[in-house]
Amino acid sequence: MGIGDKIENAAQKAGGKAKEEVGERTGDRDLQAEGKGDQVSGSLKQAGENVKDAFK
Asked: Looking at the domain assignment, is residue 21 inside a domain?
């Protein structure tokens, strides 16, 4: 996994956590769900990159 991919995935997860938190505090369920989705997406991308690295 390239360092750029690691940073991008971590940023996506962190941004998702922030969106989820803002959505929770403002009662915006759509934003909260979007944040959770971003976190899952970032985690899945990171897992995919880890699998790629395992086969190198």
From this structure: yes
Q: How many domains does the chain have?
A: 1
pLDDT in tens, 4-25: 888 999 999 999 999 999 999 9
CA 40 to CA 13: how far, in whole Å?
Answer: 7
Q: Which pTM does this prediction carry?
A: 0.83
Sorted by sequence, the CB contacts under 8 Å of residue 51 that are 6+ apart come out as none
The reply to whether 46 falls in a domain is yes
Residue 39: is its pLDDT beyond 90? yes
Its domain, for residue 17, covers: 3-50
